[in-house]
Design goal:
Elements (H helix, E strand, L loop, with lengths): L7 H13 L6 H17 L1 H12 L3 H26 L14 E8 L2 E5 L10 H8 L3 E5 L5 H10 L17 H8 L5 E5 L2 H11 L6 E4 L5 E4 L5 H13 L11 E4 L1 H19 L11 H11 L3 E4 L3 E2 L4 E2 L2 E4 L16 E6 L3 H9 L6 E5 L3 H10 L4 E4 L13 E2 L5 E2 L1 E2 L2 H5 L2 E8 L4 H7 L8 H11 L7 H30 L1
Length: 497
């Protein structure tokens, strides 16, 4: 049963009121709703799988894979939350020895999280980070996944307070535009770079900080030292997951001509092991994207796959060789199950090729040569890197995930999911101690060169041990003195007997 939805302004106003009343700031409250979110994922796995299959015809196990990543991330947040929320004590200067110096992690307020259609469960991960950070969160699932969005809107309120964590459904771009006109304290967007620019422009109205998770042409470099059978298996898995409709999917391969020949052979075998003689991953999301991919395939030298079915928006996993950097398929993110191979003479030429283009969200390197690996990592810029595999850096809870340049800005996952959605508030607690006030007199009029010189000396940055170590040393020395006195006291008693 579909619930009646409030307007964008009403939803945001309700969330703002809930935040101002402090409903989400209490750490116990945050932990409670993180547990409830995990319960939602655990208890509604079948409903989530069914809804996403209805929207995308995605394989059940691929959806379960997404759910397991989200659950593991929730466990990571819950295990570390109490440590992260505690105010931090940075090092002190001489003039601050008797003062309190702290960094508080304040929630930002009302956060908008805009999800993507291709991995709808994974785009809930920043929602959990914003909850952990103590914010109210307006959740906007993609209108391209209506079944999943409606399921979320109807079921999630059973687990989370809908005043603090409302699900806002948008049926078209106009409604999304109205939502973006509201004032948020942070906007998190996952999707295409074209829409990301619109989101960023809308955020400028109130100077709202944003995280933009987009995509790009993610290169795969393969050299002759790699295990090419395993390499082909892992690359084709990464390319075929959700039919390549993932922001970190391998986009194209760079390798020498000799590596290309062997890679193609192993890629063909890998697809046969995955799918049998009729390779089928899930269909393309809609006819518009299907036709775009057909245009990109036109004129390619296809050596694996290439079959399409316009009635089902289906494209067979496809590999193409003899691809030129000027071909249409190399001018935009593919976002489909097509893998072009561009030949280069060596890894340094591959680095040059990568650096002549926009910075990718992900970079994949297949080699056993550590000098090659280190050179590529150090001489390229990308959102993240996986060596000798694809996609897997996203699965590590402790690694931040984000883009750079046109592939995005900001990051999330693990610790970054929490700190993305907080403001680090500096707090200095002074007192009325007489010693401190004698130092303070140096800053008061009447001014003099002598006062300025002494104050400059006291305020000068000095690299050295943190004052906390001096505190520990003091405790140790005090303990030593007490132990010495106690020892001698008992020794004196023995002498008196």
């Amino acid at each position: 049963m579909k619930m009646e939805q409030k307007s964008a302004a009403e939803v945001v106003a309700t969330a703002r009121d809930a935040f101002n009343k402090g409903f989400t700031k209490n750490v116990t409250h945050r932990m409670k709703y993180l547990k409830s979110f995990k319960k939602f994922l655990d208890e509604n796995e079948d409903s989530i799988v069914q809804a996403i299959h209805e929207d995308l015809r995605k394989h059940r196990e691929e959806v379960r894979f997404e759910i397991s990543i989200a659950v593991n991330h929730l466990k990571y947040l819950m295990a570390n939350l109490k440590e992260w929320v505690e105010p931090k004590r940075p090092p002190k200067r001489w003039t601050d020895l008797l003062d309190g110096v702290y960094i508080y992690n304040d929630p930002l307020g009302v956060v908008l999280v805009m999800g993507a259609w291709n991995m709808p469960v994974l785009t809930l991960i920043p929602v959990t980070g914003a909850i952990a950070a103590g914010n109210c969160v307006v959740i906007k699932p993609s209108h391209n996944c209506p079944a999943f969005a409606n399921m979320l809107a109807n079921v999630l309120p059973r687990y989370l307070d809908s005043m603090c964590y409302p699900v806002f459904l948008t049926g078209d771009i106009h409604q999304t535009t109205i939502l973006l006109e509201q004032r948020f304290d942070y906007i998190y967007y996952t999707g295409s770079s074209s829409v990301g620019k619109i989101v960023h422009l809308a955020a400028n109205k109130y100077l709202t900080p944003t995280t933009l998770e987009m995509g790009g042409k993610n290169p795969v470099y393969i050299d002759s030292s790699a295990d090419l059978e395993l390499t082909a298996t892992r690359v084709m898995w990464g390319k075929c997951l959700n039919s390549g409709q993932a922001c970190i999917a391998p986009d194209y391969v760079l390798c020498t001509k000799s590596v290309e020949k062997e890679f193609v052979m192993h890629a063909r075998n890998a697809l046969r092991k995955f799918y049998g003689d009729d390779p089928r991953c899930c269909p393309i999301v809609n006819n518009q994207h299907f036709k775009r991919l057909q245009r990109l395939m036109s004129g390619l030298n296809i050596v694996i796959g290439g079959r399409t079915n316009s009635l089902e928006n289906y494209i067979e996993p496809t590999v193409a060789t003899e691809v030129s950097p000027d071909d249409p398929i190399m001018q935009e993110e593919i976002f489909g199950p097509i893998l072009p191979i561009v030949t280069v003479t060596c890894f340094k030429n591959a680095v040059k090729f990568i650096n002549q283009r926009e910075k990718p969200l992900a970079l994949y390197i297949f080699t056993k040569d550590s000098s090659v690996k280190n050179y590529i990592i150090e001489h390229t810029s990308s959102g993240g890197v996986t060596v000798n595999d694809t996609l897997m850096h996203f699965m590590v809870e402790s690694l931040p995930f984000g883009g750079v340049g046109l592939s995005g800005m900001g990051c999330y996952k693990g610790k970054s999911s929490f700190f993305t959605f907080v403001h680090k508030k500096s707090v200095l607690v002074k007192n009325f101690n007489g010693i401190i006030e004698r130092i303070n007199r140096l800053r008061y009029p009447p001014y003099s060169s002598q006062k300025s010189d002494v104050m400059g000396f006291l305020l000068k940055y000095r690299r050295g041990p943190s004052w906390i170590w001096l505190f520990y040393v003091g405790i140790f020395l005090a303990g030593f003195v007490v132990g010495f006195l106690v020892f001698n006291f008992f020794k004196l008693l023995d002498d008196m007997k």
